[in-house]
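Handout, section B. The chain below has 338 residues.
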Amino acid sequence: MSGPVGDKAVTRESGADGANVFTALEREVCVPTEFPRLETAPEATVKTVSSSISASRKSISPTSTPRLRQAPSFVRRLSRFTRAKGSHRPPLAFQDRDRELLRTAYDFRLITTVQYLKLFSDESRDGIYRRLQKLFHHAYLDRLGTNPNAPLLYALSRRGADALELPFREASGERYIAHQLMIGDFRIALARAAVAHGIEFDWRRVRHDSAVRPDGYFSLQFPWLAPGQNRAFFFLEVDRSTMTRERFVDKLGAYWSWHEACGHTRVYEIRNFRVLTVTKSEERLASLLSAVAGALDRRHRARHFYFTSERRFAGAAHASILEAIWHNAEGERCGLAS
């Protein structure tokens, strides 16, 4: 992917997962690509004669002055949160890669630069930065927030939704934003782990005509298992400690009542499922495990409800989220691939 000269990235990261990535591109500096070069014509040959060398009529070799370059008159800086106008916009030739970046923003609803780089880790970082910069300044993507020191946060704009022929969805509220980003981090970690293990990962649409409304719904297909027995279905609950333990236990109880009434078969056409809960901290994880142990039917706690904290897979090896970082409701260690 090509971009304007002067967009060379200078990367600074903090943390193993690159949670704080800033580049010269993020500062949006747009520099003119080439300036006209002024040249002077060679001076005419000059011959000097003195009384001592007049007979030899020697001449001095011709010389020319150095070539001069015209210095740029300005460097235009593009705003992080205000779109450039008219001729100040970086040029954009809309490509298939741009469509893929827009589709990703639609699927995730909200996505940071860091998350984009993890999803497209096999591509040029500078190239991704340039495409996102251009898509913003040409109004295909929106940038949310006003903190100049935070990674840029993207959402699909109205023009981007029109380009994909999809409905426009507007994000609102700090709590909603934090919740969506936590879902996105889980989804990216799982997608990368699935690729590393050759597992088929399918993030699916959550139905609105259901008694339960999970934060996510997906399937994993394991190639080493027999056909018909190699696909598992999961519902995701992201817990940011904004709900009391009692209310959260009631929420999980609703999943089991829904299961007993065969709601999952009627709505999603699946035979079984597990509910995965991801917490913000180890303390919250321990608190929920304690609350669930005394509330749910013991016959089903171990099979249907898994718990972990995001710190166990954030920034770790790709496979970690599939491995035994989970606890069932009995407190036993378990993995998603087992």
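Note. The longest helix spans residues 174-197. Compare this with the example in section A.
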